[in-house]
Design a protein that fits this description.
Length: 427
């Protein structure tokens, strides 16, 4: 019963969408387990570009079931929009399932996300503004609205009224924003409910049954390890757990069901939003990476901050998710550099060398990278499909990474296109 978690090993945008799309062809189910439409997963199939925010990256294969798990937070309007877009492009969405336990992002979550960021001022997190944090907060506070509530209009309105009492106080008194009406929100929601009702079900049961029948299931992570609310660079993180363990709670399966964990890492690092980033670079090298890698956010269009590969953070990610194999994406972007610095350790403000990721954020904020330089290569990698096709220096760079993190690199990205990949993944 091969169950594989695909997890971001950096600060998100590692290329998970492309990897999941590739593996979805060989899978029966693809299930998202956390995050919401803060995610933006890109698939480039021929001349078609798909940017998926909520729908799992297996949707382009009609035979693959796509599950939005209970751990995902779902904006019903965004989901309906995404369904419409895909259908308008001729993609069947018949295989989609939505967990009845998934929490819904309400209009007040979006407003509160924006208002809270504004209030934080120079301490803001740089969120995607999609209401993710406030929705997960309500889930924990037990005043959330769930997908199953769409099936019972009476309960929906009652829950909305309770939630809105407190929310309106916040909107009005704390942020000086207009109050919202339960009736108007419910009307919009019930419109979306019509569209979403056929997809809502007990997805954990369906995944369990499939695993018992030896189906191949992929669990698609959103965001990445360094944005994990427990293990990332708190408070500059998202409000869920992207690490592989969260696939269990976020899809409703036991830890013994997971066989493999595929960590996805770029051959360098990017980060969107605020927060510490030791290997961040500026100037011509950063501009070159940004331009060649088209490093602009899939969800917000913001320019991504770029930096050299950070092996300390990558080892940390491998440890936290029990990564068994690595997908190294965007190796093609690094062609043309004479030398490639790679961070092998940090140095603290006091001059101490750290080989492990420090637990204290103050230490991490002050950490400077200790670099080793690797020889670069000039060749274009766009046509490489096997390890032997790689120029020796590019191959040495990959081998160095595998050696440093202690797991094999089974997939290498050599371009944006669906088939621009060296693929040795067995699932
Ligand atoms: P995700 O959030 O992890 O799914 O990643 P995004 O889709 O937000 O960002 C990754 C970007 O890199 C997308 O535009 C992908 O099309 C692109 N990409 C993925 N793999 C490769 C690769 O190997 N080479 C290049 N040049 N682009 C890639
Ligand atoms: P994918 O799945 C990159 C970042 C935001 C911000 C922080 C908190 O495409 O890899 P949030 O809106 O979640 O409260 O914002 O997390 N962030 C991402 N960065 N990729 C993502 O998703 C992200 N989702 C959230 O930029 O710094
Ligand atoms: Mg993304």
């Amino acid at each position: 019963m091969p169950a594989t978690v695909v997890v971001g090993a950096q600060w998100g945008d590692e290329g998970k969408g492309k990897v999941v799309d590739l593996l979805a062809e060989r899978s029966d189910i693809v299930a998202r387990y956390q995050g919401g439409n803060n995610a933006g997963h890109t698939i480039v199939a021929g001349d078609q570009v798909y940017k998926l925010h909520l729908i799992p990256s297996g949707i382009l294969y009609p035979g693959t079931l796509c599950v939005i798990g209970n751990g995902v937070v779902v904006d019903p309007a965004v989901l309906c929009g995404e369904l419409d877009d895909l259908e308008a492009r001729g993609v069947s969405v018949e295989g989609l399932l939505l967990s009845a336990n998934a929490h819904l992002i309400m209009p007040y979550h979006v407003l509160l996300d924006g208002a809270s960021e504004k209030r934080l001022g120079r301490y803001s997190i740089g969120t995607t503004g999609r209401g993710i944090g406030p929705c997960y907060a309500d889930k924990a506070h037990r005043v959330g609205i769930r997908a199953q509530d769409l099936l019972d209009p009476k309960i929906l309105v009652a829950k909305l009224e309770v939630a809105l009492e407190a929310k309106n106080e916040m909107l009005d008194k704390l942020y000086g924003l207009p109050r919202l009406e339960a009736g108007a929100i419910a009307e919009d929601l019930l419109g979306h409910a019509e569209r979403l009702r056929p997809f809502i079900t007990d997805t954990a049961l369906i995944i369990d049954r499939a695993l018992r029948e030896d189906a191949r299931v992929l669990f698609e992570g959103a965001q990445g390890t360094m944005l994990d609310i427990d293990h990332g660079t708190y408070p500059f993180v998202t409000s869920s757990n992207p690490i592989a363990g969260a696939a269990c709670t976020g899809a409703g399966i036991g830890p013994t069901r997971i066989d493999r964990v595929l960590g996805v890492s770029k051959a360098y690092v990017t980060r969107v939003g605020e927060g510490p980033f030791p290997t961040e670079i500026e100037g011509p090298a950063a501009e070159r990476i940004c331009e060649r890698g088209q490093e602009f956010g899939t969800t917000t269009g913001r320019q991504r901050r770029c930096g050299w590969l950070d092996l300390v953070a990558l080892r940390y990610a491998v440890r936290l998710s029990g990564v068994t194999q690595l997908a190294l994406t965007k190796l093609d972007v690094l062609s043309g550099f004479a030398a490639l610095p790679v961070c092998v350790a940090y140095e603290t403000r006091e001059g101490e060398r750290l080989d492990e990721f420090p637990f204290h954020q103050t230490v991490f904020h002050g950490a400077r990278p200790v670099y080793e330089e690797h020889p670069g290569w000039d060749e274009d990698l766009g046509e490489c499909r096997t390890l032997d096709d790689l120029p020796p220096r590019a191959r040495a760079y990959v081998d160095m990474i595998a050696g440093a993190v202690g797991v094999p690199v089974t997939l290498i990205g050599t371009g944006q296109g669906r088939h621009q990949v060296i693929d040795q993944v067995e699932i």
